């Protein structure tokens, strides 16, 4: 499938080491910005107890779930350390200070 | 064959290099006419900084002099603007006449970006691009005074350093959080700032310029936060953009820069471009290395032997004598990437390498860049580093070296660094005691009193012993804060105080953090320590706070929040209750509960509704109850002499006064108070962190109670006669706790470590009590305010940043 990037927001709308939500027809996607201005998009639910990852503390390229401190890699969506699990990740990138998401990919979430 | 005619617009570093290659390959191919708007020929523009600082003269940086142009038969049209390019006639129109061309080379470079603020055109506001700007700055320095440099990037900092060397009092304003944010990470930015501040330059980050003011010349710069900085000179160095006006007018294709192919040809094949004015494959070029590569391609293209321009990895160095920094490649976090961080606080060295698929892809270095070329080579050549991965960070000479030394931070401390705050004992005194035969902790305590009072500096004293005695002293194992550091909470607190560390990157560097930006365990602790010790210098970092404190509400298991408005001393009014009821209805709050702290909890509020419900409660006169904070929670009271037949004092009134003076303060853990009007203790004051029992003769203040995972009864700290004294004692003990306890220790845990006797001594000493109260009030001047009202003003950040529900349904 071809990619269809669409402009979501300005990079500065998401704080460094923070996250904002994007509403989709199939639930919220959390868009994370690291301390080095990388952008990642993941499902906003920890595999443990559905904790809202967007509310977690972002450190390096990981986020710590606010409910029970599970640490999730923003890059792969994999749960780190002794816990196990996987969060779905979505293509995201930054261009000219704008955050782009792949809408076609988000749409396939409904099918998956 | 007749010579062809080549016209070059712009005599910069790139076009100069084109001409060299051209004449070298075929001196007779072209008659060359060279236009330059500046009244001079080619010089080494990147050496303007040493000219500004006085380390070089203009003559030393000239690359092509009059003799050279004469020898090559170049017709020089210096000091003449080009008016237009006529592509149909193949003519360049200068102010002083036309020149026909067969081939044209546009090398117009870049123009400084001027931020559109009032006063930007005042005399005394200059950019920093060419020799005229440089000379204007040198002239301004002759008169002395204050200079403000807007822009903390490469160019701005070189200007600042040059102006400082010429005796100006310099302030650098930078919009982002750390200097050179495009080339450096925060850690290296911190070291750079420290170096610049060391040479007397003032640095203000997150500083946004609102206006430049003055009557007939610049007088001051005004910032968004209202601060006014006097200025006799303002240097605008916020960035550059390609100079494309001539190309635009000639209808050559221009994006951000003049669009060229890999042969450096524009959309008109007879017109080439080179340097900062062009755009290739979406990229702009500002550093000299790719410009020289482009020049080669242009020269061969002019001789009908087209080459191919391939952009290469770039590296950055700052040309400020004494500031040794280097950055290259891509050093952002990413998929499959691994960071190697090395810090040597003793030498002010920071190195960070980013590795992907066994190759080095990025590097940031500060303090010691001797090996930068070696690292840059590894990046450029994509060398497989698998075999040297473990020792890579130590550089080429050190393959096989030892791991970093966890004691280096303490080893680096100067002799006058205060180790024991209670007794004012410096590192040097401890070293002298060791030399005098005190070789264990007990002997140090006995001879110097270091760590003999509250004991929180014990870890550091032991490290001084270890550094001095080597293998003869074995440090008892103490738990470090987290895997990011070998230091304990107490060690880091001492370092923050004695080394005046006022930012998180400063702590990471000076305490040898092993990660680039900490983790969810250490960041909240550091955030508290920094704001508690340096309330005026440190700015609270919401991104280093747990969600409850970041969003000023308690997160619940389903991701909703609870909202608890403050009820001072547990007293409310019918109007407040009505407003709470209305809010509960309006926002469909599923659960309304009375708390143990004498107030009302609205549970199950959606995150996006928070600012709206706060706004409603604010309008009814209520503020945040901080029911979520490691800070003052509640002051529980009984009704005291107002109503109770046993009450001895106005316990409700004192509770309200205490809550109004303490609210908003951050503490190592939550802080709960209570005031009971008589020893019957209906407010349960003796299981609070700080409890007051009113008696006929005054107020008994006791501390260290708990009724949670542990249950503890408070112990009497002091009895005082008046309400004012009670308030002062409670403020002082709160401040002592804020300044000394480990993050997440309640008062009872802290008291178990330092002892009630030590706490009493500090509070009973009236001078000390007054000083503690003053420091508490200083901090409260920043933090005693309603966070809800502030967050209502930025309500949009609580909403989703985008709504794709329609997009995705298509």
Envelope shape of chain A: globular
Strand order of the largest sheet of chain B: 3-2-1-7-19
For the biggest β-sheet of chain A, the strand order reads 2-3-4-8
Percentage of residues in helical conformation of chain A:
under 10%
Q: Residue ranges of chain B: pLDDT <50 for 5 or more in a row?
A: 400-404
- The helix tally of chain B amounts to 28
Strand content of chain B: 15-25%
Tell me the number of structural domains of chain B. 6
Q: Using the coordinates shown, work out and report the CATH topology of the largest domain in chain B.
A: FAD/NAD(P)-binding domain
What is the quaternary state of this protein? Answer: heterodimer
N-to-C series of helices and strands of chain A: EEEEEEEEEEH
- Can you give the helix content of chain B as a percent range? 25-40%
Q: CATH top level of the largest domain in chain B?
A: Alpha Beta
Report the structural category of chain A: mainly beta
Q: Quickly count the helices of chain A.
A: 1
Unreliable stretches of chain A: none
Total number of beta strands of chain B = 40
Top-tier CATH class of chain A: Mainly Beta
- Looking at the overall shape, the CATH architecture of the largest domain in chain B is 3-Layer(bba) Sandwich
């Amino acid at each position: 499938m071809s990619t269809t990037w669409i402009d979501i927001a300005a990079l500065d709308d998401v704080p460094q080491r923070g996250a904002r939500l994007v509403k989709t027809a199939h639930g919220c996607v959390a868009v994370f910005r690291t301390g080095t201005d990388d952008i990642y998009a993941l499902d906003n639910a920890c595999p443990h107890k559905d904790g809202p990852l967007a509310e977690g503390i972002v450190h390096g390229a990981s986020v710590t779930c606010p409910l029970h401190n599970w640490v999730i890699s923003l890059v792969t969506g994999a749960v780190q350390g002794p816990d196990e699990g996987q969060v779905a990740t979505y293509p995201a990138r930054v261009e000219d200070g704008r955050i782009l998401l792949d809408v076609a990919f988000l749409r396939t979430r409904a099918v998956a | 064959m007749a010579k062809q005619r080549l016209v070059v617009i712009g005599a910069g570093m790139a076009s100069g290099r084109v001409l060299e290659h051209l004449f070298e390959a075929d001196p007779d191919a072209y008659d060359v006419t060279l236009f330059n708007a500046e009244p001079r020929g080619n010089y080494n523009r990147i050496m303007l900084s040493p000219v500004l600082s006085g380390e070089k003269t203009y003559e030393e940086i000239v690359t092509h002099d009059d003799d050279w142009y004469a020898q090559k038969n170049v017709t020089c049209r210096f000091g003449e603007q080009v008016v237009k390019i006529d592509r149909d006639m193949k003519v360049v129109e200068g102010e002083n006449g036309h020149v026909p061309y067969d081939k044209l080379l546009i090398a117009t470079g870049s123009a400084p970006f001027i931020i559109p603020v009032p006063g930007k055109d005042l005399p005394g506001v200059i950019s920093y691009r060419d020799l005229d700007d440089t000379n204007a700055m040198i002239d301004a320095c002759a008169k002395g005074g204050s200079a403000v440099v807007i822009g903390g990037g490469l160019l701005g900092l070189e200007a600042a350093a040059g102006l400082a060397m010429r005796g100006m009092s310099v302030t650098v304003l930078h919009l982002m959080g750390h200097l050179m944010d495009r080339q450096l990470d925060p850690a290296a930015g911190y070291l750079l700032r420290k170096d610049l501040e060391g040479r007397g330059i003032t640095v203000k980050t997150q500083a946004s310029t609102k206006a430049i003011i003055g009557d007939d010349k610049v007088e001051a710069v005004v910032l968004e936060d209202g601060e006014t900085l006097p200025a006799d000179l303002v240097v605008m160095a916020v960035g550059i953009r390609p100079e494309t006006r001539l190309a635009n007018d000639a209808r050559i294709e221009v994006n951000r820069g003049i669009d060229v192919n890999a042969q450096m040809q524009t959309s008109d094949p007879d017109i080439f471009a080179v340097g900062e004015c062009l755009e290739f494959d979406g990229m702009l070029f500002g550093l000299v290395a790719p410009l020289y590569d482009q020049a080669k391609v242009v020269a061969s293209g002019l001789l009908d032997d087209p080459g191919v321009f391939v952009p290469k990895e770039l590296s950055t160095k700052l040309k400020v004598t004494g500031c040794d920094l280097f950055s290259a490649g891509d050093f952002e976090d990413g998929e499959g990437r691994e960071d190697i961080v090395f810090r040597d606080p003793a030498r002010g060295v920071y190195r960070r390498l980013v590795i992907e698929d066994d190759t080095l892809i990025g590097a940031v270095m500060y303090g010691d860049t001797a090996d930068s070329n070696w690292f840059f080579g590894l990046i450029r050549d994509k060398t497989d580093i698998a075999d040297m991965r473990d020792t890579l960070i130590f550089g080429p000479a050190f393959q096989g070296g030892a791991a970093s030394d966890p004691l280096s931070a303490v080893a680096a401390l100067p002799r006058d660094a205060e180790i024991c705050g209670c007794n004012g004992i410096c590192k040097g005194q401890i070293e002298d005691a060791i030399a005098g035969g005190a070789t264990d902790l007990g002997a140090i305590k006995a001879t110097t009193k270091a760590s003999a009072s509250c004991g929180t500096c014990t870890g550091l004293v032991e490290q001084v012993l270890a550094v001095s005695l080597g293998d003869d002293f074995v440090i008892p194992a103490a738990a470090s804060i987290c895997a990011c550091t070998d230091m304990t909470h107490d060690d880091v607190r001492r370092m923050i105080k004695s080394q005046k560390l006022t930012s998180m990157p400063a702590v990471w560097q000076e305490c040898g953090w092993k990660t680039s930006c900490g983790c969810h365990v250490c960041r909240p602790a550091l955030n508290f320590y920094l704001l508690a010790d340096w309330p005026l210098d440190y700015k609270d970092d919401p991104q280093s706070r747990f969600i409850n404190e970041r969003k000023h509400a308690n997160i619940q298991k389903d991701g909703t929040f609870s909202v608890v408005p403050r009820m001072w001393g547990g007293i409310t009014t019918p109007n407040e209750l009505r407003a709470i009821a209305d809010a509960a209805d309006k926002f469909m709050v599923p659960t309304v509960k009375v708390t143990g702290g004498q107030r009302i909890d609205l549970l199950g509020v959606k995150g996006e509704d928070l600012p709206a419900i706060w706004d409603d409660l604010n309008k009814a006169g209520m503020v945040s109850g901080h029911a979520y904070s490691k800070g003052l929670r509640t002051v529980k009271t009984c009704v005291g002499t107002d109503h109770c037949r046993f009450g001895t004092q106005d316990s409700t009134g004192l509770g309200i006064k205490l809550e109004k003076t303490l609210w908003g303060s951050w503490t190592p853990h939550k802080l709960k108070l209570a005031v009971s009007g008589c020893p019957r203790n209906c407010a349960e004051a003796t299981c609070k962190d700080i409890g007051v029992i009113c008696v006929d003769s005054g107020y008994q203040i006791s501390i260290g109670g708990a009724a949670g995972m542990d249950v503890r009864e408070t112990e009497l700290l002091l009895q005082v006669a008046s309400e004012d004294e009670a308030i002062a004692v409670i403020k002082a003990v709160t401040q002592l706790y804020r300044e000394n306890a480990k993050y997440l220790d309640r008062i009872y845990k802290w008291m178990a470590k330092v002892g009630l006797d030590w706490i009493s001594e500090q509070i009973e000493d009236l001078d000390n009590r007054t000083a503690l109260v003053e420091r508490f009030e200083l901090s409260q001047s920043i933090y005693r305010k309603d966070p809800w009202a502030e967050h209502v003003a930025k309500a949009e950040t609580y909403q989703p940043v985008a709504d794709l529900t329609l997009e995705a349904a298509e």
